[in-house]
Automatic annotation (TrEMBL):
This is methylmalonate-semialdehyde dehydrogenase (CoA acylating). Keywords: NAD, Oxidoreductase. GO terms for biological process: L-valine catabolic process; thymine catabolic process. The gene is mmsA. It comes from Kangsaoukella pontilimi. GO terms for molecular function: methylmalonate-semialdehyde dehydrogenase (acylating, NAD) activity. Residues 16-479 form the Aldehyde dehydrogenase domain. It comes from the Bacteria. Signal peptide: none annotated. NCBIfam families: MMSDH. Gene3D superfamilies: Aldehyde Dehydrogenase, Chain A, domain 1, Aldehyde Dehydrogenase, Chain A, domain 2.
Length: 499
């Protein structure tokens, strides 16, 4: 049995709490490793060491910090296959999907190589007689990221790359379900030249999370996960005076207009709904065809595509469409929600409840499901299922379809498929959701824009990656400097007006 570690002060460090969590192979259901769960004392020690290392890193000029990230990108490309295999082994997603996980994180690191430009302040010459004013962006100090199981490479890089580029030290608390890739990222950053102690990886559960939130040295916390935990971390972090950004759950709608290309829409829904077994916060889980004729045409296109999906372990080849979900508990919850949909009157058009994969009966595989005639009061509509389940809600009009997405409590992502520019522009303008796709099913912005949801999908006023990340991980200092010239006239006892 492999025993994993923390990564403290530039080295793998055994846990001392005596508590461990099992790390499963989702394809077989077997425990393949155990990961230590840090105590509050271990977290505090990691933070204290990071605080010692941060001033020198913060004083390193931005271009030199960027060179470390530049080398990190090279190492990520060098070890892409190794990272993807480790990710697939613990998470269950296919190798191509795992490489995409690494790649989308790598792109944020590439963006952060431009830190010297992004950290430039502002300057006003001669704001008054002999007076100049300028602003500086300075690091916060020690900051932390609490990241989820579904993107164990991408989201840690979304958090730590801008934080490190800004000159902070970073505490990473990854998911205990698939911790190997975050540890490998720490190894690569050390190899790239990051000084010891600037990045600390502390594995743990709620005890570690609370220790981070209550540690006075930690100045900011970023989180991605479920909405209840996002609300908890946001409230507790703010209560303790920290800068906090939290991203929660989702229920992403895709509106299909009557003029849409139905083959394109069906392909998009299958990929966006079932890819990564639906374990994506940007997965499309609700299809909203406008009009019964549109709905009938869409269902007719979807059924054969869904029935042909290949479900299996990542070792079965790159033609596998999706793998297992992450835990037995996740599988049980998905199937419970499917049963609730049937009981509440939805039409189960594609039924994956009896799915079983020969030789992998103990794995956490869930067959694909397609519901039709879902209504707003059903649990499968209100709840984020986080599994390979697509619900179809029929709308009589565009306005009704728009209202479904706008009225839902989540506001992470949405999409519309149409050939009509007026409809697309109206939708993009009016929708109260943070990320919008027009004939694009999963509208995840590229690294130089920002990622973030609205409503109960996002808490805080700044998004992930892009320019917002550099605002989040720095504070602005404004300096007013006067260099008098000529004769000195003595002290002044009132505020001098600017001429």
């Amino acid at each position: 049995m492999q025993e994993l570690s923390h990564f403290i002060d530039g080295a793998h460090t055994a846990g001392t709490s005596g508590r461990f969590a099992d790390v499963f192979n989702p394809a077989t259901g077997e425990v393949q490793a155990k990961v230590p769960l840090a105590s509050r004392a271990e977290v505090d020690a990691a933070v204290a060491r990071a605080a010692e290392a941060q001033p020198a890193w913060g004083a390193t000029n931005p271009q030199r910090r960027a060179r470390v990230l530049m080398e990190f990108v090279r190492l990520l490309n060098r070890d892409m296959d190794k990272l993807a295999e480790a990710l697939s082994r613990e998470h269950g997603k296919t190798i191509p999907d795992a490489k995409g996980d690494v790649q989308r994180g790598l792109e944020v690191v590439e963006f952060c190589i431009g830190a010297p430009h992004l950290l430039k302040g502002e300057f006003t010459d001669s704001a008054g007689p002999g007076i100049d004013m300028y602003s500086m962006r300075q690091p916060l100090g020690v900051v932390a990221g609490i990241t989820p199981f579904n993107f164990p490479a991408m989201i840690p890089m979304w958090k730590m790359a801008p934080a490190l580029a800004c000159g902070n030290a970073f505490i990473l608390k990854p998911s205990e379900r698939d911790p190997s890739v975050p540890l490998m990222l720490a190894e690569l950053l050390k190899e790239a030249g990051l000084p010891d102690g600037v990045l600390q990886v502390v594995n743990g559960d709620k005890e570690a999370v609370d220790a981070i939130l209550e540690n006075e040295t930690v100045q900011a916390v970023g989180f991605v996960g479920s909405t209840p935990i996002a609300q908890y971390i946001y409230a507790k972090g703010c209560e303790n005076g920290k800068r906090v950004q939290c991203f929660g759950g989702a229920k992403n709608h895709m509106i299909v207009m009557p003029d849409a290309d139905m083959d394109q829409a069906a392909d998009a829904l299958v990929g966006a709904g079932y890819g990564a077994a639906g374990e994506r916060c940007m997965a499309i889980s609700v299809a909203v065809p406008v009009g019964d004729e549109t709905a009938d045409r869409l269902i007719e296109k979807l059924v054969p595509r869904i029935e042909k999906l290949k479900v299996g372990p990542y070792t079965a080849g790159n033609d596998v469409d999706y793998g297992p979900v992450v835990t037995a508990a996740a599988k049980a919850n998905i199937l419970r929600l499917v049963e609730s949909g049937v009981e509440q009157g939805a039409e189960l058009v594609v039924d994956g409840r009896d799915f079983s994969l020969q030789g992998y009966e103990d794995g956490f595989f869930v067959g694909p499901h397609l519901f039709d005639r879902v209504t707003k009061d059903m649990d499968i509509y209100k709840t984020e299922i986080f599994g390979p389940v697509l619900s179809t809600v029929r709308a009589k009009s565009y306005e009704e379809a728009l209202g479904l997405a706008m009225d839902h409590e989540y506001g992470n992502g949405t999409a519309i498929f149409t050939r009509d520019g007026d409809t697309a522009r109206d939708f993009a303008s009016r929708i109260n959701i943070g990320m919008v796709g027009v004939n694009v099913p999963i509208p995840v912005p590229l690294a130089y824009h920002t990622f973030g949801g609205w409503k109960k999908s996002g808490f805080g006023d700044l998004n992930q990656h892009g320019p917002d990340a550099f605002r989040f991980y720095t504070r602005t200092k404004t300096v007013t400097a006067r260099w008098p010239s000529g004769l000195k006239e003595g002290g002044e006892f009132h505020f001098k007006q600017m001429d």
